[in-house]
């Protein structure tokens, strides 16, 4: 026994430490895996011992092995053991191991909560620090929730070392447990002004990261950050602040104006490239925004432009720098400018072309991106020539393929806008086919086809080129590497066949197409070969029958009959089918030929007619002929019994089958006719419905047809092949000569004109650079426009989706409001609902249930009325949307209540007592009228912590009405519950950037609105306030104050409140039919999201009623324990829900075109049910 | 910052720090892919590359590559600065640091990194403060770091000081 102990301690002496392990691994290079597995066995033994030093050593080695890629998850519990050691040495190793090895699914993390909490509150700051660092790596939602409060306390720790870490880790906590953001934010904000610069910069870091994702919630911090920016000298902090402003300026363009000066100063003064780069990037981004919707006054725009030019200049300096990194970043920033200001970039063409020669591939690729936006008619040929040189030089296929696609992109952009000479372009394409091993054969092919079809004038030339390609097809097919390029032959064969009348030597081409080697090509290309051989054959027959010698024609037929059997044997079905069909046809023709019958005309007729390009949207534009009602039943709808079997398409993937069609069967013939008539009427009045009116036909006919476009034949004076030089270069040269000639002619003309009054001006003009407009195309090139069906309406809304909710909002907003459209004034129903529990003085739950039902009923009635209204207004052609919006106020639990308490204390004793009582018991109804009313408010449906906000004399209830997408009308009911007369009430709300209280003209942005009445005791009255909202996808909270004077004491009183605009309150209950609903879901425009509610203990119809009432949904369909619901936001977002229940679990699958809105609505629904 | 990797010219991982939660499998895949991509680049190429939807910033110091992944809107140059700052910190702490110091004291390298960055954000921009914090924490610890003399059996290429070479490169 004793021996065993001694042996154990000797073993420990010889335990491997980390260094031994590292060395050992190195010395066992041959059998590393084996060595490590013995090491792991040793470690397992060590972990079994009680000595914490041995365990820590083992865990340290495991951390190393983890980095090498070995699984150490089995030791998770041992890591926790080492973490909880009281010695810092071991604790440190334990936390390091945990931060490297733990992740969210590590189950022992649950065990660590208390240990971490203990470490966080340790008197030793390094214990705390180590725990914070570790936590930042493995924080889970559970840990975040449990420890959020502890970490928040640490943000105010006396040691900056801890504060700084606590602030930074809060960001991770927010990510895992978003609910913590609101309570922690005030303190985080405080830290922006922490005396320690480290803490300050940590706070800037965190807020910047938060704001980058959701900038609009942080706009209010802009002044503070502005101050920091102008005072800070720390580049790290400055970069973050500038980045933050970069995110804010798009939302608040005025900020951009303010920022210009400090940014310019920084750009001029800073020596840190990183800071300069950040400034330049922000100015670029800001300039982009300032250019668009909020156009600044002209002088400011000019100023901005100058600053902008400064940035471009700075970028040039970056690109010219010898440092590859700066060069790369300069080009990257340039490409951002390119999108908005191509002109500014174009002046640096030389520099960018230089970068194409850079040895660094990443820089070359960046430069290529830039070239795309820099081409013009003038420089296209030059740029492409340069690129072609690079193609030849490029070694790697990836870079070469990139070059190839870029060349084609550059040339074909905006409908070949910059190409003046299509012969040149075809030659470029042909040259590109010589590339080894490119993957982009199909790209070249489609370009060839496109150009040949759409540019009529080029066909002769294109056909000649393609014939040469076909002749030399062996060059492309011979090599395995060249597989990709043979796609080009597809285009070549088709062009030669389709436009065979332009062929110089059709016989030679036909033979080229029927070579036995063709059989090695891919099937789809062979098929095109066969088909086009037939076209060629037809053309040949026509030519040859014109001659007196008939034998030539017969020989051609014989050639076909000889060669086609090869294709008839093809394994490819398409090839085989076409070949055998054509073979039989030719055999028949041969028979006729032998009888001296002229067949050419008939054969030609097989391929008569021109194939014109069809616009992609042509099909959609085919108008519905008059009298054709696509919505009418063709056959009577199936009977009810049959429809039982029919399963409508699943709306959500997991949906159970449901039976919904029954409704239609009840409609009889008469009703149908009536509906049809009504629909026609509606369509006639609907401006969005495309009508087949005679006027539209006329418009189309007036447009010149394709045939009438004058086509100038090209004089083919250009030699097709120039020895020694790539053909495209010849064109460049010729083009230059031509332009030169044109210029000279122009000059001559100008000279003639100026002969009489010749001055110094003339010369200056001559030497000036040729402008874009001066370049005329080499020959009239008509790009055949894509065809549209007859009667197609020239409309702009092609791109709009019929399901696009914004389409419905396309309403003239300038029209004055008609009486029928005015917002209905709501009665005080909510106040009633609130009063009832107070009168009862009853227990909370039954009391609160009742008023809710009541008001929901009321609401439904209101809805009906409104629907009626809407119909009327649609008829007027000016639909409006109205609804009731519920809002509520709640006090900021901490701040406002305490403030009030203080106020009170100064006032009167009696009140103070009440206040105190109130403070302690505000969740119990203890009989007093005020309290129970307050409880009523708490109970009243609202999902967020509603606490007592109001002083005992004023009851505020808010309901809102909505009109159009941005205005919200909030009705506030003031009820005086004290015994004194109240007067001079002033209502004021602190505007956020998203939502503003509308104030009368002439008043400042912070002025309050006076409430237009006084309140005697016990009286209530209503006032309405209009808010303007920009975005409705997020819930909003607005802080406000109500000031008033109590008549007798004539003291000023203040009441703080918050207006909470929930996302549900932006939804309007909108009825939706199941088929429209299904269509909406199928459209695929909606984003999905889902939520699960546990422990909901209420009947399903109550649940639905709750969603309908609180969140303004309407039930589309309900089958057993499953229902689909629909609602629509004031800005027209569709929100669809599928609610399913089983036991106490409710799952809601939801779809909406605005994911943020959807997320918030779901959160609110969740909260509604978590409170019951 | 999403993660930081240190690896040798031979592609051996020397340090890894992940600031985003990923599975071990995913981490291994990313590491393998990035090490390959970065090692394949030529010495005179720029330090940035676009990789998936991230930007990768890397820099070579003697035998070691320091490689960080940042997001689209992040500043590449400041990331290079962070890398350099970290190398300087290692250098100050170990005294002319080399790859072997990091191999044999890899936990120290982590501790220094953790004092400098937290959750992927720069925590302390002052070198002095970081080193002071590490020294203070080391005072509580019983084990001293190992030094260069303690690994005589290694090739000299691993002993190349990271920072001096860097200075030479800068002068070129």
TrEMBL record, chain A:
InterPro entries: AP3_complex_dsu (IPR017105), AP3D_dom_metazoa (IPR010474), ARM-like (IPR011989), ARM-type_fold (IPR016024), Clathrin/coatomer_adapt-like_N (IPR002553), Mu_AP3 (IPR058898). It is found in: Cytoplasm; Golgi apparatus membrane. Residues 748-764, 854-863, 895-904, 912-924 have a biased composition (Basic residues). It comes from the Eukaryota. The keyword Repeat applies. Residues 646-682, 732-747, 802-832 have a biased composition (Basic and acidic residues). Its main location: cytoplasm. One of its GO terms (cellular component) is Golgi membrane. Keywords: Acetylation, Coiled coil, Cytoplasm, Golgi apparatus, Membrane, Phosphoprotein, Protein transport, Repeat, Transport. It is a peripheral membrane protein. Residues 630-690, 721-943 are annotated as: Disordered. Residues 784-801 have a biased composition (Acidic residues). It holds the Pfam family AP3D1. Belongs to the adaptor complexes large subunit family. Part of the AP-3 complex, an adaptor-related complex which is not clathrin-associated. The complex is associated with the Golgi region as well as more peripheral structures. It facilitates the budding of vesicles from the Golgi membrane and may be directly involved in trafficking to lysosomes. Involved in process of CD8+ T-cell and NK cell degranulation. In concert with the BLOC-1 complex, AP-3 is required to target cargos into vesicles assembled at cell bodies for delivery into neurites and nerve terminals. This is AP-3 complex subunit delta-1. It comes from Cyclopterus lumpus (Lumpsucker). The lineage of its organism: Eukaryota, Metazoa, Chordata, Craniata, Vertebrata.
Automatic annotation (TrEMBL), chain B:
GO terms for cellular component: AP-1 adaptor complex; clathrin-coated pit. Coiled coil: none annotated. Residues 1-140 form the AP complex mu/sigma subunit domain. GO terms for molecular function: clathrin adaptor activity. One of its GO terms (biological process) is intracellular protein transport. The keyword NADP does not apply. It is a peripheral membrane protein. The keyword Membrane applies. Its main location: membrane. It holds the Pfam family Clat_adaptor_s. Keywords: Coated pit, Cytoplasmic vesicle, Golgi apparatus, Membrane, Protein transport, Transport. Adaptor protein complex 1 (AP-1) is a heterotetramer composed of two large adaptins (gamma-type subunit AP1G1 and beta-type subunit AP1B1), a medium adaptin (mu-type subunit AP1M1 or AP1M2) and a small adaptin (sigma-type subunit AP1S1 or AP1S2 or AP1S3). Binds to MUC1. This is AP complex subunit sigma. It comes from Cyclopterus lumpus (Lumpsucker).
């Amino acid at each position: 026994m004793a021996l065993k102990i001694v042996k154990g301690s000797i073993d420990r002496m010889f335990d491997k430490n980390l260094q031994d392990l590292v060395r050992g691994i190195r010395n066992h290079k041959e059998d590393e895996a084996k060595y490590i597995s013995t090491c792991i066995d040793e470690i397992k033994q060590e972990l079994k011992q009680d000595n914490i030093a041995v365990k820590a050593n083992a865990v340290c080695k495991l951390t190393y092995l983890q980095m090498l890629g070995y699984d150490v998850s089995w030791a998770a519990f041992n890591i926790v053991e080492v973490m909880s050691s009281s010695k810092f040495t071991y604790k440190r190793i334990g936390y390091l191991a945990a931060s490297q090895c733990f992740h969210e699914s590590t189950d022992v993390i649950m065990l660590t909560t208390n240990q971490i909490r203990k470490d966080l509150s340790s008197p030793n700051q390094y214990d705390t620090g180590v725990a914070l660092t570790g936590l930042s790596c493995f924080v889970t939602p559970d840990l975040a929730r449990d420890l959020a409060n502890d970490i928040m306390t640490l943000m105010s720790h006396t040691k900056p070392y801890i504060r700084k870490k606590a602030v930074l880790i809060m960001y991770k906590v927010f990510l895992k447990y978003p609910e913590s953001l609101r309570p922690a934010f005030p303190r985080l904000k405080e830290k922006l002004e922490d005396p320690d610069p480290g803490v300050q910069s940590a706070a800037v870091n965190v807020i910047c990261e938060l704001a980058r994702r959701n900038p609009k919630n942080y706009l209010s911090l802009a002044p503070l950050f502005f101050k920091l920016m102008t005072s800070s000298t720390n580049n790290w902090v400055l970069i973050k602040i500038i980045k933050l402003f970069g995110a804010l300026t798009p939302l608040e363009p005025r900020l951009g104006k303010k920022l210009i000066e400090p940014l310019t100063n920084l750009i001029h003064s800073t020596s840190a490239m990183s800071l300069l780069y950040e400034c330049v990037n922000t100015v670029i981004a800001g300039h982009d925004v300032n250019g668009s919707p909020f156009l600044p006054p002209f002088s400011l725009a000019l100023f901005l432009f100058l600053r902008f030019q400064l940035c471009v200049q700075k970028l040039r300096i970056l690109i010219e720098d010898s440092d590859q990194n700066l060069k790369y970043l300069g080009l990257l920033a340039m490409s951002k400018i390119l999108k908005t200001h191509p002109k500014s970039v174009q002046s640096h063409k030389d520099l960018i072309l230089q970068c194409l020669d850079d040895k660094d591939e990443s820089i070359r690729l960046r430069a290529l991106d830039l070239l795309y936006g820099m081409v013009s008619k003038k420089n296209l040929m030059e740029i492409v020539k340069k690129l072609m040189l690079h193609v030849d030089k490029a070694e790697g296929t990836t870079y070469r393929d990139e070059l190839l696609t870029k060349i084609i992109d550059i040339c074909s952009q905006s409908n070949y806008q910059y190409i003046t000479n299509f012969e040149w372009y075809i030659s470029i394409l042909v040259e590109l086919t010589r590339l080894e091993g490119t993957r982009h054969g199909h790209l070249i092919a489609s370009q060839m086809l496109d150009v040949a079809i759409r540019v009529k004038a080029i066909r002769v030339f294109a056909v000649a080129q393609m014939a040469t390609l076909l002749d030399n097809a062996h060059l492309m097919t011979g090599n395995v590497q060249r597989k990709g390029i043979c796609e080009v032959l597809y285009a070549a064969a088709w062009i030669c066949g389709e436009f065979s009348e332009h062929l110089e030597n059709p016989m030679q081409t036909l033979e080229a197409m029927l070579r036995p080697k063709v059989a090695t090509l891919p099937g789809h290309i062979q098929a095109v070969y066969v088909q086009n051989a037939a076209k060629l054959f037809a053309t040949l027959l026509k030519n040859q029958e014109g001659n007196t010698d008939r034998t030539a024609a017969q020989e051609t037929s014989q050639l076909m009959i000889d060669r086609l059997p090869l294709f008839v044997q093809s394994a490819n079905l398409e090839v085989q089918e076409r070949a055998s069909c054509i073979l039989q046809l030719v055999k028949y023709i041969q028979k006729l030929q032998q009888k001296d019958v002229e067949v050419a005309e008939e054969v030609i007729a097989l391929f008569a007619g021109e194939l014109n390009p069809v616009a992609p949207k042509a099909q959609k534009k085919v108008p519905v002929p008059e009298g054709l009602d696509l919505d009418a039943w063709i056959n009577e709808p199936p009977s009810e019994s049959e429809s039982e079997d029919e399963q409508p398409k699943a709306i959500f993937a997991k949906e159970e089958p449901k039976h919904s069609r029954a409704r239609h069967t009840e409609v009889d013939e008469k009703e149908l006719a009536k509906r049809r008539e009504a629909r026609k009427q509606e369509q006639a009045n609907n401006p969005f419905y495309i009508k087949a009116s005679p006027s539209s036909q006329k418009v189309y006919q007036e447009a010149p047809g394709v045939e009438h476009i004058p086509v100038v034949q090209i004089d083919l004076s250009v030699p097709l092949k120039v020895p020694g030089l790539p053909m495209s270069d010849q064109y460049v040269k010729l083009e230059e000569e031509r332009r030169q000639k044109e210029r000279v002619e122009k000059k001559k003309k100008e000279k003639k004109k100026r002969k009489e009054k010749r001055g110094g001006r003339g010369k200056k003009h001559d030497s000036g650079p040729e402008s874009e407009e001066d370049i005329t195309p080499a020959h009239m090139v008509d790009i055949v426009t894509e065809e549209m069906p007859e009667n197609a309406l020239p409309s702009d809304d092609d791109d709009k989706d019929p399901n696009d909710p914004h389409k419905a909002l396309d309403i003239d907003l300038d029209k004055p409001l008609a009486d029928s459209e005015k917002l209905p004034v709501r009665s005080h129903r909510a106040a009633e609902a609130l009063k009832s529990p107070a009168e009862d003085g009853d227990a909370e739950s039954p009391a609160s249930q009742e008023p809710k039902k009541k008001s929901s009923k009321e609401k439904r009635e209101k809805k009906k009325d409104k629907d009626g209204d809407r119909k009327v207004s649609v008829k007027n052609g000016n639909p409006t949307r109205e609804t009731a919006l519920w809002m509520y106020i709640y006090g900021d639990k901490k701040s406002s209540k305490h403030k009030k308490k203080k106020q009170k204390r100064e006032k009167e004793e009696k009140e103070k007592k009440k206040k105190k009582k109130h403070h302690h018991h505000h969740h119990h109804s203890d009989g007093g009228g005020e309290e129970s009313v307050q409880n009523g408010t708490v109970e009243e449906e609202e999902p967020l912590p509603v606490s007592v906000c109001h002083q005992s004399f004023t009851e505020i209830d808010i309901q809102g009405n909505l009109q159009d997408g941005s205005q919200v009308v909030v009705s506030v009911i003031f009820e005086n519950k004290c015994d004194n007369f109240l007067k001079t009430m002033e209502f004021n709300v602190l505007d956020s950037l998203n939502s503003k209280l509308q104030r009368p003209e002439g008043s400042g942005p912070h002025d309050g609105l006076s409430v237009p009445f006084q309140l005697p005791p016990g009286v209530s009255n209503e006032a309405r306030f209009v808010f303007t909202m920009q975005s409705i996808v997020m819930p909003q909270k607005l802080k406000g104050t109500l000031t008033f004077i109590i008549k007798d004491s004539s003291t000023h009183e203040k009441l703080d409140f918050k207006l909470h605009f929930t996302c549900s309150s932006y939804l309007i209950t909108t009825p939706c039919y199941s088929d429209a609903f299904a269509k909406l879901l199928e459209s695929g425009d909606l984003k999905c999201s889902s939520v699960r509610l546990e422990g909901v203990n209420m009947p399903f119809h109550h649940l639905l009623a709750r969603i309908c009432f609180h969140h303004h949904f309407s039930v589309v369909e309900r089958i057993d324990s499953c229902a689909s619901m629909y609602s629509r936001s004031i800005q027209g977002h569709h929100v669809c829900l599928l609610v399913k229940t089983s036991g106490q679990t409710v799952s809601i699958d939801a779809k909406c075109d605005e994911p943020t809105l959807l997320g918030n609505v779901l959160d609110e629904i969740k909260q509604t049910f978590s409170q019951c | 910052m999403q993660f930081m990797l240190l690896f040798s010219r031979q592609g051996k991982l020397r340090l890894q720090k992940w600031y985003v939660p990923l599975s071990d499998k995913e981490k291994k895949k990313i590491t393998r892919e990035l090490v390959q991509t970065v090692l394949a680049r030529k010495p005179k190429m720029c330090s940035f590359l676009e990789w998936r939807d991230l930007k990768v910033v890397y820099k070579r110091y003697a035998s070691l590559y320091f490689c960080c992944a940042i997001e689209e809107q992040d500043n590449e140059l400041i990331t290079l600065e962070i890398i350099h700052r970290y190398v300087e910190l290692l250098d100050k702490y170990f005294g002319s640091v080399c790859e072997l110091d990091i191999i044999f004291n890899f936990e120290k390298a982590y501790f220094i990194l953790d004092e400098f960055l937290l959750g992927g954000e720069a925590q302390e921009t002052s070198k002095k403060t970081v080193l002071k914090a590490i020294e203070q924490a080391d005072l509580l610890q019983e084990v001293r770091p190992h030094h260069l003399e303690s690994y005589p059996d290694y090739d000299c290429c691993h002993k190349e000081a990271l920072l001096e070479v860097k200075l030479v490169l800068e002068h070129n």
